[in-house]
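TA notes, week 10

Several of you asked for a full example with nothing omitted. So below is the full record: structure tokens for the whole chain, then the designed sequence directly under it. When grading your own attempts, check the secondary structure regions first.
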């Protein structure tokens, strides 16, 4: 599918960055002036606002260059411009930010206002972690991550003589014809295998860099460094291990039973890799996949109607994105294959990038990413300081995942009643099937960064992933297949790009189910709480954010068991 010309033009205009805007000389004098200005406690709010405005301008430029590079992974000029910003501007910006933080922390008698208390605490912790050596090393780290983006963004799959993007090929895994699923799976596996050596090399470089970053910051290992960088103050690695064990004991048996039931109804003796897609389990009646739209414009239109049924203000926000060039949805060659929501703080505008191919899963992902966009809008409206917008990552997926559920009752124009029941069932199945994957991803990273030795090899990574996959996905039969394919499952976006950002998806999925459970009895009250929690941004603690949304910050065994029972009840209903 291709975007209409007006949409692409609006997007290109939105992402335009002038040479001056991406040059450090534009910002350096303003930072210097703020650093030289005498500062006492009374003047901090105004000074902080000026610092925030300056940082927001730079954040805008960084986000726009990054999005543009992801939309054009094959363009050497666009990639070079992003890398120039990373190597020339980002280090100076990081140094300036630390100098500004040190100046603020040195103000005698300053007591932060309630809405700045959390920010002040975070700034103190960031200052304690700052190391000049890591500024330069950080540039190397970003360059290494960008190698992953370019490699995967230009990856294609050859199937039946046709060249497909990764999302287009993955769509074929939902085909009710088992032979066609297998053919698509093998084509994807061949493409991944061809790319694997290059990604192995990137990961070994990243491991070296990440360990050096930890040593420079006087941390025992990279997990300890990330724990502090991610501001994880409300739970510990031991809590994460308990989560892994709870999922292994409470959820894996549910997925095993659920998939065995589907396989039995389809007359399958066993579940092969091409029979299992955690995002969209096989239809137990072998019906063709739902295809609710054909073009990106159609997806936008059906989502607009759904939001209008849910809430007028949410509908207006989405309409704003549509007319302002803040959506790029279609899959095409040379475009990064992941889906995400970025944000431009100076204008309080989110930007959603996707790779849609016409599936019901695309509908769900759009609601997910636009849920992030609503978070940007509402926190931006309520929080003048850009540093107080959005929320800690343990909360930031609730706005997106809850939106997947809150829209379920507003899709009558998209699906027939039977199709809507299928879509709803897939959504609920996805919650259960996702948790083992999340636990496996998190467990792998705990091992990699806190337990694996300095001389860990790619073979060690492969072996650990196999061990974990057999624990968390024992219901998939790999007999007779090349398990080197299975062993490369760790070559996943988050492992390369955002280390340790994954268990948060599980935390937030559990919370999103809790939000939806509340909406069963009080739809408007649940929606009001949802919107109120988004407005808080990063001004309160994680437990307070969860309470504002009407749920508890929990991911223990008992809580998981209770929510899984609720999901099963909803599936039966």
């Amino acid at each position: 599918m291709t975007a209409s010309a007006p949409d692409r033009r609006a997007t290109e205009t939105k992402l335009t960055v002038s040479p001056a805007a991406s040059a450090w000389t534009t910002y350096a004098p303003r930072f210097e002036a703020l650093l030289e200005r005498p500062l006492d406690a009374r003047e901090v709010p105004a000074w902080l606002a000026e610092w925030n405005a300056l940082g927001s301008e730079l954040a805008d430029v960084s986000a726009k260059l990054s999005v543009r590079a992801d939309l054009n992974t094959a363009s050497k000029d666009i990639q070079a411009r992003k890398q120039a910003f990373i190597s020339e501007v980002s280090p100076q910006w990081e140094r300036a930010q630390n100098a500004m933080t040190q100046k603020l922390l040195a103000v005698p008698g300053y007591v932060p206002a309630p809405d700045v208390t959390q920010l002040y605490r975070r700034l103190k912790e960031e200052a304690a972690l700052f190391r000049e050596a890591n500024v330069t090393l950080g540039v190397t780290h970003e360059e290494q991550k960008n190698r992953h983006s370019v490699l995967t963004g230009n990856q294609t799959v050859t199937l039946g003589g046709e060249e497909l993007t990764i999302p287009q090929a993955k769509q074929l895994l939902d085909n009710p014809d088992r032979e066609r699923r297998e053919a698509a799976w093998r084509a994807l596996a061949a493409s991944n295998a061809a790319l694997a050596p290059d990604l192995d090399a990137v990961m070994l470089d990243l491991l070296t860099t990440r360990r050096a970053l930890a040593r420079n910051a006087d941390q025992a290992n990279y997990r300890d460094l990330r724990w502090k960088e991610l501001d994880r103050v409300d739970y510990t690695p031991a809590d994460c291990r308990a989560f892994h064990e709870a999922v292994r004991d409470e959820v894996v048996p549910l997925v095993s039973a659920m998939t065995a039931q589907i396989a039995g109804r389809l007359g399958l003796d066993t579940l092969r890799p091409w029979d299992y897609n955690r995002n969209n389990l096989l239809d137990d009646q072998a019906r063709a996949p739902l295809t609710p739209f054909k073009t990106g414009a159609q997806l936008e239109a059906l989502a607009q109607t759904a939001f209008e049924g849910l809430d007028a203000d949410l509908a207006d926000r989405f309409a704003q994105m549509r007319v302002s060039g803040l959506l790029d949805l279609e899959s095409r060659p040379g475009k990064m294959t992941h889906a995400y929501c970025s944000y431009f703080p100076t204008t309080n505008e989110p930007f959603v990038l996707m790779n849609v191919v016409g599936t019901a899963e695309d509908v769900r992902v759009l609601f997910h990413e636009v849920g992030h966009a609503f978070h940007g809008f509402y926190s931006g409206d309520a929080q003048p300081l850009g540093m107080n917008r959005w929320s800690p990552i343990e909360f930031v997926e609730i706005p997106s995942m809850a939106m997947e559920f809150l829209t379920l009752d507003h899709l009558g124009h998209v699906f027939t009643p039977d199709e809507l029941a299928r879509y709803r069932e897939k959504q609920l199945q996805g919650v259960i099937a996702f948790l083992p994957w999340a636990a496996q991803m998190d467990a792998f990273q705990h091992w990699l960064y806190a337990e694996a030795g300095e001389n860990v090899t790619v073979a060690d990574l492969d072996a650990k992933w196999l061990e974990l996959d057999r624990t968390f996905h024992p219901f998939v039969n790999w007999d007779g297949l090349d398990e080197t394919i299975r062993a490369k499952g760790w070559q996943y976006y988050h492992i390369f790009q955002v280390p340790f950002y994954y268990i948060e998806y599980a935390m937030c999925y559990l919370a999103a189910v809790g939000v939806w459970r509340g909406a069963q009895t009080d739809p408007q009250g649940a929606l009001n709480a949802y919107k109120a929690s988004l407005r808080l941004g990063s001004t309160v603690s994680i437990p307070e954010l969860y309470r504002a949304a009407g749920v508890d910050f929990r991911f223990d065994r008992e809580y998981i068991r209770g929510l899984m029972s609720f999901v099963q009840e909803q599936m039966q209903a």
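The longest strand covers residues 349-356. Use that as a sanity check on your answer.
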